[in-house]
Amino acid sequence: SWPWRPVPYHTGTQTENTAACPLLSQHCRGTACPCLCVPERERLDKQKQHMARGLPKQKPIAGVEQVIVVASGKGGVGKSTTAVNLALGLMANDPHVTVGLLDADVYGPSIPKLMNLKGNPELTDKNLMRPLVNFGIPCMSMGFLVEDVAPIVWRGLMVMSAIEKLLRQVDWGLLDYLVVDMPPGTGDVQLSITQNIPIAGAVIVSTPQDIALLDARRGAEMFRKVNVPVLGLVQNMSVFQCPNCHHQTHIFGADGVRELARNLGVEMLGDIPLHLNIRETSDQGQPVVVSSPDSPEAEAYKKVASAVVQRLHKSSSG
Ligand code: ADP
């Protein structure tokens, strides 16, 4: 009778199970029966539908073609600096593309400072926030909405509603790429973002230090689990060149990120040197890609940007 249940198959005693298989109209041969998988498959399909109902539906951000998230396992490895210079690098490589920057790091938003932007976004007649623009890049950040984010004791629900606001209530216009500066780590906020919007790919930033690499691996694994393509890894601060004698020192190690990329089977998108120019220009709100566009540091970011575009092409063409 339906639902039909498989019974154990005993070699040589096929007659033991006399229930007729409703799909093949013949005596079922237990676990060896070719129809066995059918009820099981139906059960699994049902379970999948059930689970899908419980998950938030991914809804694209209006006007945005592709979302690139920049993530890191740990704070302080240069994620925000990379996000900003990646966005500027995408535009520097191809002035026809339109790029936006979303600061989803609600705990410590650094985009206002890095992009030299201040003020409250205006509202459109549809009650959407208009991003603030500098260097040709529209930006949105929690830092524009509250005076000082640091004293806020964030609770889970508040974070989610802040993220929801940043994801859904911004008038981006038309963008080829929206670069999202993710909060560091692999917690609920990161998961919620990946489940709410379709993401074209993730860029993971790490220093070559063992402790940072462990967290970077965790980050890559999280994205894989939620089916976000990992575009590749960026190795930051791997080499310091003495400005006087030009001797090169690998302060945090030389090739840790490259090795991790090999282990994970993902691409190495680029290597950004540890350079005073990057730190100073960032602090001044004049990112290196715009303030010293021909410097080797800016070139390194532009190389990352073109590797990202290549990987996006590859993953969209299968
Ligand atoms: P995260 O977003 O991972 O917390 P940030 O991008 O804010 O990290 O960078 C942390 C600090 O390191 C900042 O002061 C930034 O200017 C500096 N920094 C990042 N990358 C480099 C680099 N390649 N060379 C020099 N300083 C860097």
UniProtKB/TrEMBL annotation:
Q: Pfam families from the entry?
A: ParA (PF10609)
Alphabetical list of SUPFAM superfamilies matching this protein: P-loop containing nucleoside triphosphate hydrolases
Q: Which GO terms describe its biological process?
A: iron-sulfur cluster assembly; mitochondrial respiratory chain complex I assembly
**Would the keyword ATP-binding turn up in this protein's UniProt record?**
yes
The alphabetical list of record keywords is: 4Fe-4S, ATP-binding, Iron, Iron-sulfur, Metal-binding, Mitochondrion, Nucleotide-binding, Transit peptide
Keyword Metal-binding attached: yes
Subcellular location as annotated: Mitochondrion
Q: Which cofactor does it need?
A: [4Fe-4S] cluster
- Its chief place of residence is mitochondrion
Recorded GO CC terms: mitochondrial matrix
Q: What does this protein do?
A: Iron-sulfur cluster transfer protein involved in the assembly of the mitochondrial membrane respiratory chain NADH dehydrogenase (Complex I). May deliver one or more Fe-S clusters to complex I subunits.
From the Swiss-Prot or TrEMBL record, give the protein name. Answer: Iron-sulfur cluster transfer protein NUBPL
Organism, as annotated: Denticeps clupeoides (denticle herring)
State the gene name recorded for this protein: NUBPL
